[in-house]
Write a structure and sequence with these properties.
Length: 243
């Protein structure tokens, strides 16, 4: 994965109205009034990233980041240089280092997959906000619990499923994310095989072979830059057979 780092740690804030309205899309801030969001927007650092740029400092600078628009990938790199994409973040997600010390032996890198706008607060500012509003506190705890469940499912998948099963599970997850209509789902654009390989902890060649097999079975169909899952239930049946 190409890692073109941005030379700028953060950018100037957007217009005030755009700033607080962007924060309205962050679910754990739902309880805040427009006036409180406007104040919070003024406290934030604003980070503008082009596709391919790395968000410097994420998971090491003890700040909480909120994705306002765009998409980010989160990748882990071991000391040996091996990389794995942990996941993709969409608008409204928050992330960052809550611990006093960053994780050792694993470097986490956040990269924009498309033009993105990110807001961030220091941990001290986050703590003050949480302590001042119990609804925000509850929302943060609930979201952290949800993320724990997502990570637990990912670990179980990596530890118990073959590459074939992991790919099927990943395609089903993406189908559910975009919406299933009449047993079909359209992934637009189609996920890149190299990115799927990094997500699944395998090689691009192995992903290509399994994608070809699923296409021959009539479960997948390429449509230009898009990928259609033609029989979602059929994919579920295959996954159950591999468990």
């Amino acid at each position: 994965m190409s890692m073109a780092e941005s030379p700028f740690p953060f950018a100037s804030a957007p217009a005030p109205s755009v700033a607080w309205q962007g924060l309205r899309g962050v679910s754990w801030l739902d309880s805040l009034s427009d006036e409180k969001l406007a104040v919070l927007a003024g406290q934030c650092r604003w980070h503008r990233l082009e596709a391919g740029q790395v968000l410097l400092g994420a998971y090491t600078d003890r700040r909480i980041y909120m994705l306002i628009n765009g998409q980010l990938s989160v990748a882990g790199h071991s000391v040996s240089g091996r990389a794995m994409i942990v996941g993709y973040l969409g608008p409204g997600f928050f992330f960052g280092s809550f611990a006093a010390q960053p994780p050792r032996n694993v470097a986490v890198e956040v990269q924009a997959t498309e033009a993105s706008l990110v807001a961030s607060l220091s941990n001290a500012e986050l703590e003050a906000l949480i302590m001042s509003d119990v609804q925000v506190m509850r929302a943060v705890i609930q979201r952290l619990n949800e993320l724990t469940g997502v990570l637990a499912r990912r670990v179980v998948s990596l530890g118990t499923l073959s590459v074939r099963g992991r790919l099927q599970a990943q395609l089903l997850e993406r189908a559910e994310a975009v919406g299933i209509d009449d047993d079909e789902a359209l992934l637009s654009p189609a996920p890149r095989q190299s990115d799927l390989a990094l997500m699944l902890g395998t090689s691009r060649e192995e992903v290509a072979r399994e994608m070809s097999r699923l296409t021959r079975l009539g479960l997948l169909q390429r449509e230009g830059r898009n990928l259609r899952i033609c029989r979602v239930d059929g994919l579920r049946v295959l996954l159950e057979e591999t468990r």
